[in-house]
Amino acid sequence: MASISLRNVCLDYPLYGAYDFSLKRRLLGHLIREKGEMRIIRAVDNVTIEAEAGARIGLAGPNGSGKSTLLRLIAGVYPPSSGQVAIKGNIVPLLGLNAGVNLDFIAEDNIALLLRISGRKPTRAVIDEIWAFTELEERMQRLPLRMFSSGMLMRVLFATATAFPADILLLDEWLSVVDEHFAEKAEQRLQNLVSQAAIVIIASHDQPLLRRTCTSIINLDHGRIASTVTVEQPSTLPFEFREISA
Amino acid sequence: MHHISETPRRPSVLHIFKIYYPDLFGGTLTVIRDVCASLKDAFTSAVLVCSQSAEQRNIVVNHVPVERVHSFGNVLSLPAAPAYPWRLWRKIAEHDLLALHAPFPLADLVFALGFGRRRPLVVHWHADIVTHAGLRWFIEPLMRRTLRQAKAIIVSDHVLIETTPLLREFEDKCHVVPFGIDTDVYDWPKIEPHHVNDRGRLVLACGRLVPYKGFDVLIRAAVNHNFEVWIIGEGVERARLEQLIRDLGLGERVKLLGSVNDCERIKLMCLADVFVMPSVTNAETFGLVQLEAMAAGRPVVNTALDTAVPRVARHGMEAITVPPDDPEALGEAIDTLISDPERRRRMGLSARARAVSRYSTAAFKDAMETVYRSAVTAASDEQVPAQDQLQVTGLFESVRIAAALAWSDMRHRYVRSLLGPFWMSLQMAIVVAVLGSVIGQISNADMLARLPMLALSMTAWTFLNSVVLDATTALQNSASLIRDRALPPVIFLLQCTFRQGLFALHNACVPLVLWLLLTPHELSGALAALPGLSLFVICTFALSLVLGALATRYRDLKPIIESTLMLAFLASPVIWSSEMINHRSTVMRLNPLTHLFAVWREPLVGGHVDASSVIYVLVALALLLCASVLTLVHLRKAAFWI
After folding, report:
1. Does residue B385 have a pLDDT over 50?
2. Mean pLDDT confidence for B473-497
3. pLDDT of residue B619
């Protein structure tokens, strides 16, 4: 059973300036007794989140309110400075689509590599299925990604990233690049994925999207939880069916 | 993680200390024994200690299993037991709670390396380090790490928190649990403090014969007075104290009784007129033995230390407190009591009353059980962070991802050109040809026969150089995969080794072709070179791991690493042969590269590797592995650096 439990979690993010990356300066600073003051920003401040399987949590808040940092903390990228983090289930973090893409490679190889990075075996059938979802021409599979437009690239990356269900899905804002038709399809797939994943956490500025997909919305401000809103699901029935059968 | 509270099994506690019965008797050991005994209904206990005795390793003391790791003796008050950290690590997994009896820096070292992080830890703070205060700068960070990891810190009195700066940092974790004493064993009706011996002049002291106990002060105090002193206990100071007694001519009145069993000790306590605790340093934090004397209804003379000592038996009520290390004042105080039976009686009664009311075993047991239980439950609530799980279960996965990435890097070369990495091999061939001809000019030796080895050495050197240089930028180049896909940073350092390994295989065709063309085909050396070659590769990877992480944290390291590597290359016999250069050149002998190449090059040509080279490489490897472990611990923070 997947679950996420954050208890009074804080994250002090060290801000390294140009000088803080210098060993020579640091050693010199020790010699001349210059107290190097490290700038630290509290990116996540005393956050407590308990999520059991079936939870779909939206993170809202202005830029720099700590949405992405919180997602990365849950993903295990940043170790918490204090508090307790307990996570059960395998996490699929989709925080930036571009990660791991090599533009010189043909689309097919990129898909294969991306699948390997997420620990899946890229078989012919899987790649074909992903390609079918992109609705791009068959022959484009053999073209280097460098030749793709940004919208087409997004389609490929989105299709690959969402090809497999996950226990815990972490999504950062990235649905805005594609055209309208694909956006609709993407959202549908996301809904589907969300319904299969035990826990989904989405960070987005798109309030309507959050209201459509999430069971509760957490508003962040300067790393703190400003408020938590529980969303009434307009059409819960099909989702619940899927959850029980999953 | 399983919830331990539901299982009927009693949680098990591992007590960690340096020494235990029957090797020694003393306050700390009494505490461990009492904790084990009083909590036996709630917890199963085990003890892991060191022992110098060659007898059996596993013994049972008071129904508690004790494992004794062999120690070769004491260095700076610490047992020299090289196997202890290993045994501790093995035992940690078997228990639900760890109880460290501090100070014990050997165990701090194990915890500092990150072992036992998943088990709840309770620290019994018995004393600060006083004897070897010079080592503080080294020990204190270790102790701080341990205390940070601890769920609770148990001290015997609140004054310890106030006077110990290190404890003050963790004040919110500290629990004050005064020791308890079973007053029933002191058969009260038979002791008649109100019927004190009018001629009474028997002074008793008890404790290990170690410097901080201050028994020499007590012996000196006896010089100008007329009382008799009996000292119970054994220890390293014995010879010195005996000498002192002889020198002062006190052989008639001062006796060292040696070790005495519990029953006998209680009898002696009841027999004595005054109990003295002359301890001179803050290493004496509580003085369990003075509590025993109080239970026996004896008046106490103790010293004004900054610890709980003068608070357990208080000046003017149960004790007379004198300045530490002051024989005159100590002698005066003892004399005052000896000459005033009425005061002895009064003090003895209030001492007994205080021991019964304030330091009962029941209160001790309850408090200990509460602390232990909350530590175990807190730990079972708090689960392993996700990234830790990732590190353990995902190691194989990491290697696979690194291999996939490296393979894709290699294919990338073929995408851009037909020859791919063979372009580099071509370059290598040219370098070897030019170098060969130049070296052939310098020395008169048969250069052609040496070309394959030159090419192979260059291939190996290129591998090492590129792995380390790649690693210095690897994490920054893969920032998006680390931050957005949450891949462990170590993958990308592994990737460097794998990628350059693949390239090295391409390059290896140059020496292979040269070997096929130029020299007689002798394969026996190749097998002998394999162990050395794997050492070479492992060292390279460990070096790239450490330097890669360091260079990511400190960006100005990269040029330094680059030039150092070049310098090491030039000062090593990679391209020069031993005949061309005086092989005994000091710089070359100190250069690790020399030995790193020697361990596989020598067997390859059918020669013999110097033992010094093998030792040099193994020591370097051990150091690198230690550094790698530290690096892996800190690599968690790599996401902040990129």
Report:
1. no
2. 89
3. 93
Count of domains for chain B: 3
Q: Give the domain CATH number at B311.
A: 3.40.50.2000
Claim to verify: residue B95 and residue B135 sit in the same structural domain: yes
> Among A179-188, B73-82, B311-320, B386-395, which is the least confidently predicted range?
B386-395
Q: Could you tell me the residue range of the domain that residue A203 belongs to?
A: 55-76+91-245
Residue A3 resides in a domain: no
pLDDT exceeds 80 at position A123:
yes
A17 interface with B at CB cutoff 8 Å = no
- Is there a domain that residue A44 lies in? no
ω before B103 within 30° of 0 (cis)?
yes
Residues B536 and B396 in one domain: yes
Same domain as B316, residue B396: no
- Write down the pLDDT at residue B133: 66
Q: Which of B531, B530, B605 is nearest to B573 (CA)?
A: B605
Average pLDDT of span B135-150: 82
* Predicted confidence (pLDDT) per residue in B524-534, tens digit: 778 888 889 99
Q: Are A214 and A202 in contact (CB under 8 A)?
A: yes
The rounded distance, in Å, linking the Cα atoms of B290 and B302 is 8
Q: Could you count the other beta carbons within 10 Å of the beta carbon of residue A231?
A: 15
Cα B363 to the center of its chain, rounded Å: 33
Residues 152 through 181 of chain A touching chain B, CB cutoff 8 Å: 172
Total beta-carbon pairs less than 8 A apart between chain A and chain B:
110
Q: Which of B263, B625, B495, B65 is nearest to B57 (CA)?
A: B65
φ and ψ of A65, to 5 deg: -90, 0
Q: Are residues B330 and B414 in the same domain?
A: no
Nearest to B385 among A13, A72, A85 (CB): A85
How far apart are the C-alpha atoms of B604 and B336, rounded to whole Å? Answer: 86
* B482–A98 CB contact, under 8 Å: no
Looking at the partner chain, which of A25, A79, A88 has a beta carbon nearest the beta carbon of B387? A79
Domain that holds residue B130: 4-180+367-381
> Is A41 in CB contact (< 8 Å) with chain B?
no
Write out the DSSP string of B317-334: TTEEEE-TT-HHHHHHHH
* H or E element at residue A94: strand A91-94
Q: How confident is the model at residue B546 (pLDDT cuts 50, 70, 90)?
A: very high
- Nearest-CB residue to A77 (from B401, B404, B483): B483
| Cα–Cα distance, B293 to B301 (Å, whole number) | 11
A91 near B CB under 8 A: yes
Q: How much is the average pLDDT of B314-331?
A: 90
- Could you tell me if A22 lies within 8 Å of chain B, comparing CB atoms? yes
Average pLDDT, chain B: 83
User: Cβ contact (<8 Å) for A99 and B480?
Assistant: yes
Distance CA B341, CA B354 (A): 20
Give the per-residue pLDDT at B620: 93
The tens digit of pLDDT for each residue in B454-480 reads 899 999 999 999 999 999 999 998 888
What CATH number should be reported for the domain holding residue A63?
A: 3.40.50.300
Domain count, chain A: 1
Whether residues A117 and B484 touch (CB distance < 8 A) is answered with: no
Q: What is the chain B residue with the closest CA to A14?
A: B640
* B162 and chain A in contact, CB less than 8 A: no
For B482, the closest chain A residue by CA position comes to A77
